[in-house]
Design brief:
The protein has 224 residues and is α+β, with helices and mostly antiparallel strands. The chain folds into two domains: 86 residues, no CATH class; 130 residues, tt1808, chain A, CATH 3.90.1570.10. Helix content is 20%, strand content 33%. Strands 7-10-11-12-13-14 form a six-stranded mixed beta sheet, with helices on both faces. Strands 1-2-3 form a three-stranded antiparallel beta sheet, with helices on one face. Strand 12 and strand 13 form a beta hairpin. The longest helix is centred in the last third of the chain and has 14 residues. The protein is globular, with a radius of gyration of 17 Å. The two termini are 25 Å apart.
């Protein structure tokens, strides 16, 4: 995925979803403006006070990150933090949201015994041990996370990500190895435009076409 040069200062990079996210990283923080060929998004601007050379989870408290996520959501922006790198996307389209709901509803315990509760939640903020805060489109948890205002520290056993135009690099290249490194057993990436799904696990992957029922290694099944 090609990024504007101003997104690549000192190792910082931002991945956009549908439309473009135009911003600058400077000493006073990160300035973000949204642009879209069909929508007027000129009013959606954020100025994020993160130090230029500091990783976001270190520079801000968890409560401050949660507040920024809420403010970003109100401006139509979806914010995650990946290994100190802020990742911005426009909020999901109706197609994306409907596919996420359909797939989430299909999650259930698999035929083979495993003891996993198969609790599924959409867009739940998860804090990983390295400080990253990711928001998988669907997270499948064996144990139900506690109801808190901040990102849960309960890690999902499986993750489903749904590809939007422009998010291919994040969903197919950045996210699967990250989740697997942190002990997630299954990562499924589904592109509703092509019907193709890729299932990643530690040491392998498989590709299939929708409808595809996957018996996940975590002890649950999902249909994409």
């Amino acid at each position: 995925m090609s990024l504007p040069p101003k997104f690549e200062q000192d190792g910082h990079a931002l991945f956009g979803g549908e439309g473009a996210i135009v911003g600058e990283v400077g000493k006073l923080g990160l300035f973000v403006r949204l642009e879209h060929p069909d929508l007027d998004l000129s009013c959606h601007e954020l100025r994020i006070p993160v130090a230029y050379n500091e990783a976001m989870p270190v520079a801000l408290t968890e409560a401050e990150i949660t507040r920024l996520m809420d403010e970003a959501h109100e401006a139509g922006i979806r914010l995650e933090v990946h290994e100190g790198l802020p990742i911005w996307e426009l909020c999901p389209s109706p197609l994306h949201t409907m596919e996420a709901e359909r797939i989430a509803q299909s999650v259930e315990p698999s035929a083979r015994p495993g003891g996993c509760g198969c609790h599924r939640f959409q867009d739940m903020a998860v804090r990983f041990p390295d400080g990253s805060i990711r928001r998988p489109d669907i997270g499948v948890f064996c144990e139900r996370p506690a109801a808190t205002q901040e990102a849960t520290r309960t890690l999902p056993q499986a993750v489903v990500e749904i590809v939007s135009p422009g998010s291919e690099v994040k969903d197919l290249e950045l996210s699967p190895p990250f989740y697997l490194r942190h002990g997630v057993l299954d990562v499924v990436v589904f592109d509703p435009r092509t019907g193709e799904a890729t299932w990643f696990w530690d040491g392998g992957k498989a590709v299939g076409q929708s409808p595809w029922r996957i018996e996940l290694r975590c002890g649950c099944s999902v249909t994409v």
